[in-house]
Amino acid sequence: MAQGAQVEEQASPGHARPETFGELLAVIASDGGRLPRRLRAVAIRVTQNPGDVALATISSLAEAMGSTPSTLVRFARTFG
Q: Which domain, by its residues, includes 27?
């Protein structure tokens, strides 16, 4: 199986890819403490400002978070 397919089937270790925002929140809540510092900061922003995350571009989100676009892409891949 290709590595990309594994990312789609499984979010963070031990969790299936979330299909809804509620499922994503549950996965973040259960794994948030184990995330690296930068990904944890993104997780906090996602849970506190879901509307911003849904409508903004990666570049504008990264700038608002004081992060980089690659960190947001890593976060998205982590959670499928």
A: 3-78
- Return the structure tokens found at 9: 């089937």
DSSP states along 19-63: -SHHHHHHHHHHHGGGS-HHHHHHHHHHHH-HHHHHHS-HHHHHH
CATH number at residue 22: 1.10.10.10
CA distance 24 to 54: 13
Q: How many domains does the chain have?
A: 1
Tell me, what DSSP letter sits at residue 32? G
* pTM confidence score: 0.73
From first to last of the 80 residues of the chain, give the pLDDT tens digit. 344 444 444 455 567 788 888 988 888 888 767 888 889 889 998 889 888 888 889 999 999 888 999 999 999 888 88
State residue 20 phi and psi, 5-degree precision: -130, 165
